[in-house]
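Hi V.,

Quick status before I head out on leave. The structure for the redesign project is tokenized and pasted below; the design run finished overnight.
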């Protein structure tokens, strides 16, 4: 009676082939990494944009105020688009909800529009930022306007987190 031969050597050969393939793929990936960094396609950080909202006055009901969205990028950002989205309780009085242009590294741009709150309540405004260079890393920024007859608030968070709210009273 014959004993079956050991197939251990076949497992060793297969394992060695797999390791060689992994090694080749790893070397290929890391050799191309520096050239991709030079082209700006590999992100060194996920935070490409810094954005902030401000208003010219307390956004009380039926008062026209200037809403300013300030944007700064960590690198040159040609062909950047900003799209502003207003909720049903806020009307655009003047300006354009869309901005497109080139932003230089550490340059701040201000996109200004005039708005009016036409319904009491808390309303969320969104600014969507996209750019070809940072493709896949588009970013949405939000602010909240809580408006009444005698007062208006602009905050980064909803009223569910009142400790971060900045109140602006009418003078």
């Amino acid at each position: 009676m014959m004993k079956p031969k050991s197939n251990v050597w076949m497992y060793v050969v297969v394992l060695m082939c797999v390791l060689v393939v992994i090694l080749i793929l790893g070397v290929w990936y890391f050799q191309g990494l520096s050239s991709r960094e030079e082209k700006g396609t590999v992100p060194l950080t996920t935070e490409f944009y810094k954005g902030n909202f401000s208003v010219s006055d307390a956004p009380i009901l039926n008062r026209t105020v200037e809403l300013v969205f300030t944007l700064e990028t960590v690198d040159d950002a040609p062909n950047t688009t900003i799209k502003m989205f207003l909720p049903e309780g806020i009307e655009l009085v003047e300006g354009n909800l869309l901005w497109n242009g080139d932003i230089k590294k550490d340059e701040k741009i201000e996109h200004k529009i005039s708005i009016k709150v036409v319904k009491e309540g808390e309303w969320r405004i969104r600014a969507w930022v996209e750019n070809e260079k940072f493709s896949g890393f588009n970013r949405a920024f939000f602010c909240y306007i809580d408006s009444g007859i005698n007062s208006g608030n602009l905050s980064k968070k909803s009223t569910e987190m009142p400790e971060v709210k900045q109140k602006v009273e009418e003078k």
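Above is the designed sequence. DSSP finds one helix and ten strands in the chain.

G. will cover questions while I'm gone.

Best,
W.
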